[in-house]
Amino acid sequence: MALRGLKVLELSGLAPVPFCGMLLADFGASVIRIDRPDDRQNARLDRLARGKRSISIDLKVPKGIEVFRRLSSTADVLIEPFRPGVMEKLGLGPDILLNENKGLVYTRVSGYGQDGSFVKKAGHDINYLSISGLLSMLGRSNQKPHAPINLAADFAGGGLLAAYAIMAAIFERQTTKQGQVLDLSLAEGSAYVSSWMWTSRDLPMVWFGNQRGENLLDGGAHFYDTYETSDDLYMAVGAIEPQFYKQLLIGLGLDPNDETHNQMNIHEMKKKFEEIFKRKTQKEWTEIFDKLDACCTPVLNWDAACKHEHNQDRKNFLFTNEKQEQPIPKPAPRFSASKLPAIDRPAPNSGEHSAEILREIGYTTEHIETLIKENIVQSSQLPKSKI
Amino acid sequence: MALRGLKVLELSGLAPVPFCGMLLADFGASVIRIDRPDDRQNARLDRLARGKRSISIDLKVPKGIEVFRRLSSTADVLIEPFRPGVMEKLGLGPDILLNENKHLVYTRVSGYGQDGSLAKKAGHDINYLSISGLLSMLGRSNQKPHAPINLAADFAGGGLLAAYAIMAAIFERQTTKQGQVLDLSLAEGSAYVSSWMWTSRDLPMVWFSNQRGENLLDGGTHFYDTYETSDGLYMAVGAIEPQFYKQLLIGLGLDPNDETHNQMNIHEMKKKFEEIFKRKTQKEWTEIFNKLDACCTPVLNWDAACKHEHNQDRKNFLFTNEKQEQLIPTPAPRFSASKLPAVDRPAPNSGEHSAEILREIGYTTEHIEKLIKENIVQSAQLPKSKI
Question: Taking the model in full, what pTM does it have?
Answer without folding.
Answer: 0.91
